[in-house]
Structure formats: C-alpha cells, structure tokens
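Write out this protein's structure.
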Amino acid sequence: MSIKVVLRQDVDHLGDRGQIVNVAPGYARNYLIPKGLAYTATEGNLQVLELEKRAWTRREAKDAEEARGLAQRISGVQITVTKRAGENGLLYGSVTSSEIAELLAAQGVAVDRRKIRLDDPIKQVGTFTVPVRLHRQVTADVSLQVLAASE
C-alpha cells in the first residue's frame, strides 16, 4: 500500500521538487511531512502546487545563474594541503569534505561542506579533482593537491 505525496524539496533517491510520488504511508507520515519535505496530494494541495511551481521556476533560474557564476570562480581555484604521510604515499589521516570547505573559504569561496561530493575521504598523496555540486544543474570541479609533509 502506498500514498501519493507532492515533494516540496528535492529528495535524494526519491524525486525532485514539485513531483508527485508514491511512498509508504509510514515514510510520509513519519519523515517527509514532519520535515516539510512533502505534503499529501489532495485536490487543494495540487492547486497550491501550481502556484508554487511558478515561483519555483523564477527562483530556480536565479539560483542557477548564481551557481554558474560561483562555478566559474571555483573552477580556477587550486587547493594545496600538506599532510603527514608514510613512505608509500598513504596519509596518516585523511582529507575530508569539511577540510576542503575550510580551504576553499580561505581562498575566498564559501561552500557548504555537504555540497562537496567525495565518495570517500582522500587518503593518499597526489592530485585530485573534487566535484562540488552547487545546484541541481551546476557542478564545478576543484583541483586538490595533497602533498606529503617533510619532517
């Protein structure tokens, strides 16, 4: 058994904002609706959805344009971090998305750490391309160079 809900925000692995999806009643009742991520797909709520879609398209265009501008600034940034490493190039710690966000902030680019898409923390010396998802449609790549600290 499932119920129809209208998504108010993008939900990973479920759907995009404004989309009508079928979900389990418990998932909707206990997670989506209380968090403000969705509301039930009633006739009245579908009419509200049409009004919200107009506002979303205007806001979406503005946000995408701002994200493209930020992506151009980020693409030119090269970050270098020095960490302690063993003889074979493996780091004693790791470089995480939080640390990358701090390094970007030091360069004058404020990015939320959750937008930095690292599959796993970086645990070796080398040069890496780190994707930063600024918007649903805009992703920028940051060049990260991890160096071994000389002791």
